[in-house]
């Protein structure tokens, strides 16, 4: 499974686009893994998140995709994946929203359960993230979001017209940031299903896929194909 196919599969699950996906598809973002970069003598960028924050992201991801008879998000090191994606593929605006989201989850955890997220029981974590998932889905339908989006679209369309008059047809319009939990959920799915354990254990994987068969027999409960 190549990057484009993987991102398309995850986008289908999310019902939309995946933030940062274009850079992930086209270039793999900005850096190579630390070990490879060091061996090549290249600059190794510092982590965007601290080790504790990466562990925190692992627990959020594991709540979304827990380990059962197949691997969970922590088995795929999704927290590390989020660190790289947010650092290398997100705009400063989206990075800020994402990072503030960690503080928001911690605050909500203490307000509702009198405990930090890391100390909460699995059932409590699931309950909290389920509520956040609903909030994230409703977010783009709020009057406040629509008003801000309309104002931003008007401003960006004006900028785009000016750039086009100068012969620049590649102006990248700014957009509203997604809800922080939508970003976390997207990266959890993308990181897991493009990982080795996700592709080979949670899905069916063939290293050398054969001919295309549009009418493969399928029974309810069968694993999807990674390739």
Annotate the secondary structure layout:
Layout: H1 3-14, H2 21-26, H3 34-39, H4 51-64, H5 78-89, H6 92-113, H7 122-139, H8 143-165, H9 180-193, H10 196-202
Helix pairs in contact: 1-9, 4-5, 5-9, 6-9, 7-9
Structure overview:
With 227 residues, the protein is an all-alpha fold. The chain has 10 helices and no strands. The protein has helices spanning 3-14, 21-26, 34-39, 51-64, 78-89, 92-113, 122-139, 143-165, 180-193, 196-202. Helix 7 crosses helix 9 (180-193). The model has no long low-confidence stretch (mean pLDDT 82).
Individual helix count: 10
Summed over residues and divided by their number, the pLDDT gives a mean of: 82
- C-alpha Rg (nearest Å): 20 Å
The parts where pLDDT drops under 50 for at least 5 residues are none
First and last CA, distance: 5 Å
The helix-and-strand class reads mainly alpha
Mass-distribution shape: globular
Largest sheet: none
SSE pattern, N- to C-terminal: HHHHHHHHHH
Portion of residues within helices: 55-70%
Strand content: under 5%
